[in-house]
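job 3f2a | input accepted
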Amino acid sequence: MTPITPPARIAFIGMGVMGAAMAANILRAGFALTVATRSRAKAEPLVAAGAQWAANAADAADGADCVCLCVPDTPDVEAVLFGENGVIEGAAPGTVVIDFSTIAAAASAAFAARMADRGIVLLDSPVSGGPQGAIDGTLTCMVGGADAGFSAARAVFDAVGKTITLLGPAGSGQVCKSANQLIIVSAMQAAAEALAMGRKAGLDPMLMRQALLGGSARSFVLENHAKRMLDRNFKPGFRAELMRKDMRLALGAVRDNGVFAPATALAAQMMEAVVNSGRGGDDCASLGALVAELSGLKD
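job 3f2a | predicted structure (299 res):
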């Protein structure tokens, strides 16, 4: 396949926090950009910066060498790709579609097969790195799909990410993202329990965290999520309700692959509890507040 390089036209569908930031970096890299989203107001900053607006996914895909999407869940991806005025109605054979959403692995593989029937390459590429990583263009892209499509779209990936790995056939990126999320939530649970233990034993939790950061327990979760727990800063970077969705996907992935996974099961149940306790709109680090509450700690 011919490499997709600036100033080729890229379509981006989905202007949430992550999608808008990734689209901005694609535009900044020198690509021509077309954007589409349910609320045009979210796309206005990009339109003002030079992007074209499309009324729907089909119009966005028309004439684009690569179509990117970043939407919340599996049904949303299916609607964008195959629904009325979907990508499949506007994309020409040979187009590469990159799905940056986090959805079910089996669905990703099935969607890729349906697109392949029309001569379109679909790559699943869920990302990690959060809103700041999206802004900085340093996301980790976990990619599944055909090597030819991945190689052709390499410049698009380079515009949004720093660590970009082709992991295998369609759906492989989603499996890796489930692994990423179950590790994060399990580590958050451990950090929350450790901080609660320290507080109940009379330790200063700030000093305790500082000490732990100097040893083998140092981790991204301890550096970032644990600090949010201690600061009670639950302004959403990644909402708990989205992490619950991701942990449901992780449960499906371990089940489908026959894995003994008690840590995944516990992590998923804790995210259910976080959301059911009224914290669904808060950052997922509000898991720490729930553990503290269940431990009898008063804030």
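job 3f2a | Strands lie at 9-13, 32-36, 52-53, 66-69, 96-99, 121-124, 127-128, 139-144, 161-168.
job 3f2a | closed
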